[in-house]
Amino acid sequence: MSLQFFISVLFGTLFLLLLIFKVVEPAYVLLFNKPLYIHWYPFYKKLRSSQRQILINDFPFYNRLSPKRKMYFEHRVIEFIANYQFTGKEIFITEDMQILIAGTYVMLTFGMRNYLIRLFDKIIIYPSSYFSTVNQAYHKGEFNPKMKAIVFSWEDFLIGHSASNDNINLGLHEFSHVLHFHCLKSNDPSAIIFFDEFKEVIKYYTDPNLNAILTQKGYFRLYAYGNQFEFLSVILEHLFETPHVFKTTHPELYTHTAAMINFNEEYFK
C-alpha cells in the first residue's frame, strides 16, 4: 500500500465521519429524538465475577437488561470508577461503595452517549449526614460545582438505594443535578435532546394549570416543588423507582421525562 493511497483513505474516512456527525446525525436526532448511536466500545472491559455479583444483587435495572446491554453497563461502571476519584471522610472506601455509586450513575445515563461528565472529578463520602460549608447546614448529599465534587452521606445513600419503590434515591437525585447542569451547557446530541425535552418537562413546574394537576394527584413529594432543579431530580427518581405508576399517573410527563435521558423500555428486551 502506497503512502499516497493510505493518505487518501485516511482523509476519505475523516470526511465520512465529519459528514455523519455534522449532517447525518443532526437529521437523525431531529427525526427520531435520539442519538445516531449510544454504545460503541472497541474493547469491552468486564467486571470480575465478585463485582458483577454486586450488580446482580442490587440493581434490578441491570438484571433486566439483555446480555449485550449488560456488557455495555459493566464497561461503563469500570470506566466511571477509573475516571473519578473516591475519597472517604472518616470512612473507608470499599469496592461495594464504588460499584453501587457507579452503577447508579450508569443507570441514569445509560441512554446517553457522552456519559463521563467533566463537571465533577471526585466523589466524597461521609459515614452519615455532614456539615456543609456551602450553606452552613447539615446535608445528606450535594453537588458542589466549585469543588467539582459529588458528596454523599453513605448511610442515606444506602437507605435510598435499598428501598427501590419509595421514589427517594439520594444517588439518583444528586447525579441528576450534575446531568442537568451539564446538558444546559453542552451541545452533544444527548444534551441537546435533554434540553429540548426539559423545556417540556419544566412546564409542569411553571404552568399553574399543569402544576395544579400534579399537586392534586399527589404522586410527587412536596420537595419537588421547591425549584426547577429539585423538580427535575425528583421526577427522575420516580422514573427509575416506579416507572409504571409514573406512566399511568402522568403519561405525557412520563414520555417527555423518558425521552430526556433516552430511557427506553426496549433495553429490557
UniProtKB/TrEMBL annotation:
Q: Which domain of life is it from?
A: Bacteria
Query: GO terms for CC?
Result: cytosol
Q: Name one GO molecular function term.
A: aminopeptidase activity
Q: Which Pfam families match?
A: Peptidase_M90
What the entry lists under CDD domains is as follows:
Peptidase_M90-like (cd20170)
User: This protein is called what?
Assistant: Zinc-dependent peptidase
